[in-house]
Amino acid sequence: ERGGHDVVYGVRKAYEGLSKQKPVGEAVAEAEVVVVALPWPATAETLGALDLRGKILFDCTNPCLLYTSD
Fold first, then answer.
1. Closest by Cα among 54, 4, 43, 51 to 27
2. From the centroid of its chain, how far is CA 36?
3. pLDDT for the residue numbered 52
4. 50 DSSP assignment
5. Residue 22: Cβ within 10 Å count
6. Contacting residues for 59 by C-beta, under 8 A, at least 6 apart
7. Are 5 and 23 in contact (CB under 8 A)?
8. What is the pTM of this model?
9. Which of 37, 41, 48, 56 could cross-link with 33 by S-S, CB 3.0 to 4.6 Å?
10. C-beta atoms surrounding 23 within 10 Å
11. Per-residue pLDDT tens digits for 16-36
12. What are phi and psi of 27, to 5 degrees?
């Protein structure tokens, strides 16, 4: 619990030492507010698989391209 809010992490696979984690779909289904922080290539597929109706969504994703100097 942070600042009076129950925080649950939606994860694809379980992480040792991370408290309050659930599968992504389950975490979203139970949430009022969803914070999205995904790698750009995973964004469309992940969000497309979730029912976000009625949720407040904070999207922290930025479509960034990595450039290398050759």
1. 51
2. 4
3. 95
4. S
5. 16
6. 36
7. no
8. 0.75
9. 56
10. 13
11. 888 899 999 999 999 999 999
12. -60, -45
Token code pair at residue 60:
């922290």
Q: Which of 19, 31, 23 is nearest to 10 (CA)?
A: 23
Residue carrying structure tokens 């999205």: 36
CA–CA gap between residue 50 and residue 18 (Å, rounded): 22
| DSSP sequence for 12-40 | SS--TT--SEEEHHHHHHH-SEEEE---H
Residue type, 41: P
Q: Which amino acid is at 63?
A: P
Answer for the pair 33, 55: CB distance below 8 angstroms, yes or no: yes
